[in-house]
Amino acid sequence: MLRRWLLSLTSVALLMLMALPVMAADTIKIAYIDPLSGAFAGVGDAGLKHFQYNAELINAKGGVLGGTKLEIVPFDNKTSAQDSLIQLKNVIDQGIRIITQGNGSNVAGALIEAVNKHNERNPGDEIIYLNYAAVTPAFTNEQCSFWHFRFDAHVDMKIAAITDYIKEQKKVKKVYLINMDYVFGHSVSDASKAMLKEKRPDIQIVGDTFTPMGKVKDFSPYVAQIKASGADTIITGNWGADMSLLVKAAKDAGLKAQFHTFYGGGLGAPKAIGAAGIGILNHVTEWHINLNHEEKNKQDEEFFLGYQAKYSGGGEVPYYYGRIRTQMQMLAAAIDKAGSADAKAIALALEGMEHETPYGTVTMRAEDHQLIQPLYISVYAKAGTDKVKYDAENSGVGFSTVKRIEAAATAMPTTCKMARPSK
Amino acid sequence: MFEYLLFSLLNTLVLGMLFFMLSSGLTLIFSMMGVLNFAHASFYMLGAYFGYQISAVFGFGPALLLAPLAVGVLGALVERYGLRSVHKYGHVAELLFTVGLAFIIEEAVNLIWGRNAVTYPVPNFLDFSLFTLFTTSFSAYRAFMLLISVGIFAGVYLVLTRTRIGLIIQASLTHPQGVSALGHNVPAVFMLVFGGGSALAGLAGVIGGIFLITEPAMAATLGPIVFVVIVVGGMGSLTGALVASLLLAAIQTFAVGIDVSLGDIFARIGFQMSPGGLLKDLWRIKISHTGPILPYLFMVLMLMFRPKGLMGKRES
User: What number does CATH give the domain A156-285?
Assistant: First the structure.
C-alpha cells in the first residue's frame, strides 16, 4: 500500500516537474534581485514597483513576440553579495534567464562574475544581466562583460555632467568634496578632482573629506570645516541619512553653498530634507518628476500619474527611476528584434540599439554596454507653482531643471575589451 | 579659528545634551533594576514618531507635552505587564525581553509609518537663525534643544536630590530590600522610574527627530552610543551620564577637525613610518575619519581600567 502511495506521489511530482517548464514558457520572466528586507528594503521595494508598473504597461500593449507577457519575479538579496549569489542559484533553478539588479556595486560586481562563470560553463543556456543603478565605472571598463548591460550613467558620467555645469559657473571658485568612506565615495572624489582640474584649472579644491558610512549623527562639525574652508560649492555622492543630515546641518549653520549630489532627489531624501534644500540642493538624474511639466510632455505626464495613482502609496514614494522605463522598453524591443527570449539573442539585439525616450534618443553603446543618455541637473524648488507642478514624496518640494546635458557630452571613453561569444 | 572653536563647542553642547536626555533614563533603569534596556532607543524613536504625528495634527507645542507623556505611559505599561512577569526568570530573560521589544517596536513603526523617513520639519516659530557670529549662524532650534535639555537635567536632578520620591528612588537604587522592608512599594517605584525614563527618551525623540531624521533606523543608529554613555559615565550616576555625554559629543565633534594621521604624529616625534608594509593602512587613517568610532574605543578602555565608570558607585 505504502509503496503504491509513494509510487503515485513520485509520478505526480515527476509530472509537475515536467509541467513546470511548459508553464514557464507562458510568460517571459525577469528576476529582480534587490533588498526587500533590512535597512534598504524601502529602496528595493520602490524599484520592484517601478519594474512591475513598466511590465504592466508593456503587457497592456500586447506584450512581446506577438502576445507573450513579461513577468517580474522578486528575489530578496538583503543588499548582500553572498545572498545575491544564493538567489542567483534559485533564479537559475527556476529557469529564469533575465536578471536585473541595482542597489550596491559590491552586489553588482559579484553578480557579473557569477553570470560570466555560469555562461562559460553552460553554453546555450546563458543569463543576461541588466543593471539599473550600480554605478562603479569599472563595470563598463576593465571589468566589462558581454552579458552585463548598464542603464544608469556611471560615476564618471555624472561627475562629467556636474563639472560641465560648474565649468560655466564663473562664480564657482572653491569646491569641497565630502563623501562616504567606501569604494563609491572614493571614485566620486577621484573623478571630481580629475575633471575639475581639466575643465576649470582655476578652481581650488579646498577639502576632500570621507565620512564613515551611516555612522555620523550630527554633520555640524563637518559643516563647520566646510565653512572654515570658504567653499562655495560642494560635490557629494552621499545617499540616505548621510545625505539628508549633511544638508540639514548646512542649513542650520547658514552655509550658503551649492550642493551637487547624485541622490539628493529621491528615495526618502526630499521627505527628510524638505524646504531646507530649496535653491541649494542639486541632483543629477536622467529624469525627474517635474520634467513632463517643464517640457509639456503629456505622454510622460500620463505615465507618471499612472504610477502615482497605483503604486506610490498616495504620492509617498513617487516614480523616481526614469531609466527603468527605458530599460524595460529596450528589453521588450530587443526580445522582439531577436525573435526569442534567449539571453544571447537578446544581448546581441541590445548591443548598439537606439531607443526613443520622451526626452531624446538613447544608445546602448556596443563596445562596453553602457547606455548613453541625456542627463539633467535639477535643483530643489517649492512645488505647486507655475513652473514646478509636482512635489516629491508629499514634501511640498519639487525640482526645477537647471541644465540639460546632451547624451553625447556624457559619453566617456572606455577601456573595455569585451570577449564576445561567437554568433 | 575662534569661530570654528566656538561653534564646535556649541554643537558639542547640543549633541551632548541630546545624548544625556537619552541616557539619563537608561542609567537610572539599569542601576535600579539591573536591566540593560535594549528597547530604550526604541522609546526614543517612538517619541519622534508620536511627536511627528501629534505636531502634524495639533502643532509642535502639544506634541512636546503629549508625545513624551504617551511614551512614558507606554513604558510604564511595558514594565508593569511585561518586564515584571519575566523578572522572576532572572536578568537574562529580562534582557531578551527588551531585545524582542526593540524588534517589535521597529517593525510596528515600519508597518504604521512606512520604511522611509517622514517629513518632520522645524516648527515655524523656531525656524530662524538666532544669531550670526562672523559668518556662521546658530539656529534658534538648536538653542531651543539646548534649553529644553538643560531644563530637564535641572528638573531630574532636583527631583532626585530634593524630594521625598527622589530619596526613595535613590535608596532603591542601592538597597531595594531595605526600602521594601520600610514599607515602600518598590515595584511601583520601578514602574515609575521605567515610565519616567521612557518619557525622557520620548522627549529626546520629539526634539531629536527634527534635529536628526525620523526614520525606522533611528533607534539602531543612536542605541549603541547611549550604552557607551552609561558605561563611561558610571551606572546610576546622573552627573556621570551628563559628563560622559558631553565628553563623547566633544570627542566626535572635535575629532572631525583634526586632519592628521597616525603616521603624521609619529613623524613629528621622530619616527618615520614606512609607507608600505602590513600596517600601511593604519598610518594613513586620519583622526578626522575615526571620530564616530572613538567613543567605542573609549568605552573599551574604560571597561579595562575603570569598570565602574567615571562617577559610578558600584563595581558590578
Answer: 3.40.50.2300
